[in-house]
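Changelog note: in this version the structure field was regenerated for every chain. One regenerated record is shown below for reference.
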Amino acid sequence: MISSVMPNYKRLDLAFEHGEGLWLTGTDGRRYLDFGAGIAVSSLGHSHPALVQAITEQAKKLIHVSNLYQVPQATALADLLVANSFADSVLFCNSGAEANEGLIKLIRRAQYKNGHPERTRIICFHNAFHGRTLATISATGNHAYLEGFGTPVDGFDHVPFNDIEAVRAAVNDKTAGILLEPIQGESGIRTAAPEFLQALRALCDEKGLYLGIDEVQSGMGRTGTLFAFEHAGITPDVVSSAKGIGGGFPLGAVLAREALAQHLTPGTHGTTYGGNPLACTAGLAVITEILRPGFLDNVQKTGEVFGQMLQRCVEDAPTVFEEVRGVGLMRGLRCRLPAGTVLEAAMAEGLLAIGAGDNVLRFVPPLIATEADCQEACNRIGRAAHALANRTGD
């Protein structure tokens, strides 16, 4: 008999009662070091005082009014994001998939308003992940996500990641723009080369295309800069954000230059919940913390040290691990043994991580992680690897 909750998730037999900082306590009373952060969402960790206070105080006053009215909290958050990014304007929504839908519509709408209604196609990349709506699984292009849902939404062309010549060959008179993740998270922490991002920017300028960056997982400070594309020194036209922006409260955003944002006029797009007072209050608390002096510098420093620690894990257990991937606090260990088996062993040591494609174990801890936290995580990884090596006889 089917459960009351639909069976679309393969859930672990584990539930949590409460959390504090980087630690979660299960309903069985066991404590776990959380290096998954709810899939890169809990950017300030669990029960962060500033976030809890902001949500509590706002919930007592006003939760929702809809976008029929002015929302001062949304204006304040948009002002903060604009002041600290490339963007001129921000659209709020509820999730990463919604943010990517908004990004796609914005690229197509801007081309239409600029006299190019034929430009509707967007170049995407193999091994991408952009969400679970019909349009975003089509942008993702993974057959496993598309199977059983009918004809994919038209308008997406897929080429190899980090291959500028393949992108150039795919551009035609119907191309509107390009969409990519600077670090492909779901497929195994695959990082776009800086020169690849720079070449994409130049190609878009040359061909009159818009460059869209999916920063749903890699943004909001995860790599030591507010957005991961900043490492390449480029300026995109439009960026999608979610996950860490709300610190656990559902919130998404589309950040864009005026050249695109001006075309999203009344009636062209909307959301009932997006940008409501409670969500934007949460976002404002999170971004204010992330932008505090020294916060991002600390993420960058801690992330570099974490990468070095993970490299030592590879060297200490070469029969279990193959290589380290990623930037900042968005890291992956490519495994020689099945990643699911390694994940189980890590959980047995009280460490939470996330599986990813290409047999990778993914680590995206809260951004408040210290070097000591990273060392503790690596100690547990080491014990898990030792147990696995003994089990296999290596």
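Spot check on this record: The chain has two domains: 16-34+293-392, 49-290. The chain is about 40% helix and 20% strand.
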